[in-house]
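Oidioi.mRNA.OKI2018_I69.chr1.g106.t1.cds, Oikopleura dioica. Tokens?
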Amino acid sequence: MEEKRILCVGLTCLDIVTEVAGFPKEDTDQRSAGMSWRRGGNASNNCTTLRNLQKSCEFFGAMSSLDNDVASKFAEQDLSSLEIAFENCVRFPHPLPSSIILLNNENGTRTIVHHRGGMPEITTEDFKKLDLTKYKWIHFEGRARTKSGERPDVSEMIAHALQERKKNPALDFKVSVELEKTYEGVEGLGTEADVVFVSKEFTGKFGCESGDEMVKKFREKIVKDAMLICPWGDKGAFASDAHGTYSSPVFSPEKVVDTIGAGDSFVGATIAKLSEGMSLKDTIEFSCKYAGAKCGIMGLKDVP
Ligand code: FRU
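Tokens:
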């Protein structure tokens, strides 16, 4: 039987990364120190980390059905080259979303301008078509429905996955969700998941000033036995479960060269280690080391 996969549900896009010697002033003209195309998007980046850590994984999200969409072809080739499955992706006749990213060579900061264009979002109905027996973990990028309905509510997908798991003893996957963005509705998405990631930005929106405070307070909003994990950039990471709270320091590389997807690497590494049964405390320390090492190299592949 094929090894069970880790499924990541969310965005894949083209990242057009332009390196700059310093952050440019508006309305000036300069040469770039380097330029690259990368496959990006949180869920897609999570998969890259999972493959680096030798996990069998699958990306599920919207992709282009257009024959002439170069960005989509590029992303597909890249997914295939890393053996990340994507055969269940939903195809739409729209170009793949893209991001223009300025990577500052001075300090590794990344400034992202994302363009989704006309690409629709996948729906709960699409998610329901998946054969859930194939997965040992299902991770969702937290996306909440807008008033006009253009975003799917991943809480519906999470509810479906959990209902199926309850009905069928053969389904033993864990469910995780990342609450990263701060738009309205995101706070309601993690309430049922087994593992909830909350970003620094989301923590601020929730009214907490530190990761430490967040992993205590946000527990009221999630199920009692869930794990809550809050990566906090240069302060490391904080976590809590039903038994207590944990923290890890940051592990900075000698020089920070590239922070694009550092948070996604943290999440991917955490899922990889928790899926192996590593303790929450050891896992967040591993993931802080992994994300630190990532910031010391260009890109997300081949993190040492
Ligand atoms: C990094 C990233 C990029 C992408 C952007 C989308 O976390 O996933 O790869 O362009 O965020 O918001």
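The mean pLDDT is 94.
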